[in-house]
Amino acid sequence: MTAFRMPAEWSEHEGCLMAWPTRVDLWESVLDQVQDEYAQVARAIAEFEPVTMVAPPGHGEEARRRCGVDVVDVVELPLDDSWFRDSAPLFVLDGDGRRAGVDFRFNAWGGKHHPYDADDRISGLLLERLGIDRIPSGMILEGGSITVDGEGTLITTEQCLLHPNRNPGMSRDEIEAELKARLGVTKVVWLPYGGLLDTETDGHVDGVCAFAAPGKVVVSLPDDPAHPDHARMRANRAVLEVTTDAKGRPLEIVDVPQTVFTDVAGGEVEVSYLNFYVANGGVVVPVAGLPDDEDALAVIADAFPGRKVVDVRAAAIAYGGGGVHCITQQIPVARPTA
Questions:
Q1: Fewer CB near the terminus (10 Å): N or C of the chain?
Q2: Which pTM does this prediction carry?
């Protein structure tokens, strides 16, 4: 069997996949605001790489109008929701640069939203449309629950991957074996916690930490002792402090101490600075329009030297349970030799 490996997010992209938000029962009164925020994210990424926006049938023109007809390529396919980090394929490359897409199962974060059958099928439909080979997996997995360095290391959280609403028939060892088999990693680092308030995804790692380079991890470390994750993120950091990557290197840890809460639709939501997207030459970061934004952006810029950091308001996206990373999925460049 050909050996494939998931490249790091900072590897060169052919483009970015997004899905247009239309789920009224999720967004309710903020639907107009969140569509505007999705469009802003698409325009920000399009400054660095091509963006394909998948819209449910009948919503393509709306997506084109709001994003800009010259900004994104819009295609219509059946969708239930708009979180492509979790329902789109995870792309992998083999040693010769050939590309495939791993099609994990999707169950709407443990059945939190219905229906989700179209989102469970969308990965296969996208691969067929893109002409990319499909690698099926019977395991339920969302892309937001993992971060990889492209050199064999994967970080995830026990809070999410071991939750009984995902793969109750699989042990931790079996889940780890499937990650290694499908994504080509050789070492899985298990952090104990995701965000306490992240009840939507049960603690995805993309609100906790992200690889910024081989051997370098950006982590959320709230400096306010009253923050619900103050102790939890320090427990995660303690694991990383004594961890080496797949190549035996100790990890350089970059702390993001800033956190921010803002009001949306009469309730308080947390906008996670860690939920950023690494584009070709840039990093698109969710912000809330509050003073802490600038300090967090400076930390992230230092972690990604040579990349332009762009901030996008994402309070309504946070209301739905995610951020910029949650609504995007990179397509790495294929480089077949012959």
A1: C
A2: 0.97
